[in-house]
Amino acid sequence: MTAFAAAGPVSLVQTVDWLAIAPVVIPAAVALLVLVADLFLPDGKKAVLGWISVAGLAASTLLLLPLRGEDRSTFCLTGDALADGAACSYTADRFTLVIQFLVLAGALVTALLSVTAIRETRLPAGEYWFLLLSSAAGAALLPASRDLATLIVALEVASLPAFALVGLRRGDRLSSEAALKFFLSSVTATAVSLLGISFVYAATGTLHLTQVADRLEDVPGQLDTLAMTGVALTLIGFAFKTAAVPFHFWVPDTYVGAPLPIAGYLSVIGKAVGFTGLILVTVIAFPAYSDIWGPALAVLAALTMTLGNAAALRQDPHRAHSAVRLLAWSSVGQAGYLLVPIAAAAYSERDQIGSTVAYALMYAAVNLGAFAVAALVARTKPLNRIADYRGLYAERPLAALALAFFLLCLAGLPPGIIGLFAKVTVFQSAVDAGLGWLAVVMAVNVVMALYYYLQWTALLFRAPVPEGETAAGATVGTPLRAKVPFPVTAAITVTAVVSVIVSGAPQLVLRFAATSLFPQ
What pTM value is reported for the model? Predict the structure, then answer.
């Protein structure tokens, strides 16, 4: 009989730390408010729902500030169940707050882009905002989850609304196809994860991550194969969520079919959710099996960055939606870089997870900025081809400069200093862990990515093709003379300012790479 089974009855009476869970509760409460308000507001007043949602996300982001002092936990085991040490389902530590900031701030930028997109594409406002806020609440819950049940619930609360958001454009074939592919891949990932978690529970008798880690250190011989299989299946499920190769096939079509703000949301917040879950289960719950997940993640990292960058290189600039497809494949390549420090954590005593977090913060700001500029261009050139960006500097100089800066950050070239330093920290984590071959693969992929990032950047500053003429078989659309809505301008400005600030003072982000994000 396991220690868990032998434990006495557990008292469920305890005090809830409402301040600690406020960043999760507020988006969820505002989501319900918006859904109910939508029933009573006339069509002409639906725009107010967007601004209520923006205010809710801003408030939840600001509520992270009072939590910076000390680690806070709630929903903890009590009484005899604490025989193996403290075990809580929700913990607001340093790692949690950093990821929650990334998620909520990213959702806020997405909301700004969506205010205009909903009106122009005639999406149902009430449903849209309810789904976006619900997904953001799930994504904010996930980094605080410290048991496998809460982890998988948070993962699904973040993912399920995203299916509907992708397919919300009714009657659009691309949107419906994208939602179906996203749904099928995510449901498969969830099923695999649940099977793996059930095996882990059967072998350890607990779902709390810290207790799982302790009991996996001394698994009975007859349960070792079961535990090992559970660990492998759980990791495979999260690999789907991170769009790691070979579980990446849904990404390009999903990004193309989704509304552009949602494509940006998936590229940043969707990936943050997957990587956060992967970090929690590997570093906290499964360190005893690092000899399994370490090599597996290293191989996945190499495959993911290589295939993502190779596919991005093959994009035809004149193909419809090629700009979004390039950003989609680029995000797959970037996922490979994000996997490197997690794999390195299996080989090194130093906490390497900070390198992934630092890189994720840089990537979130610049990638959301790139999608914000893409949303601006799509207002007059809905096919959103890379060729449509030729001469953007002559038409929208500030937008072109912002996009050029974002692309240079992604490439890791000056003046995008933060992109360069973030790549160096990831590279260093591989070297410190003795993964020299993975560092070489990453270096080759960084060079590969330079080509398509610089090609797109150079196109922004070329002379525009006269209206009505063709360039290499692509008819040029109407120049970008329409007035830019304030929310789109605000989204581009915020991401550009943040990117410039962290490039000027990279220590604001890179300090996470040098310190432990988990309490010892």
Answer: 0.90
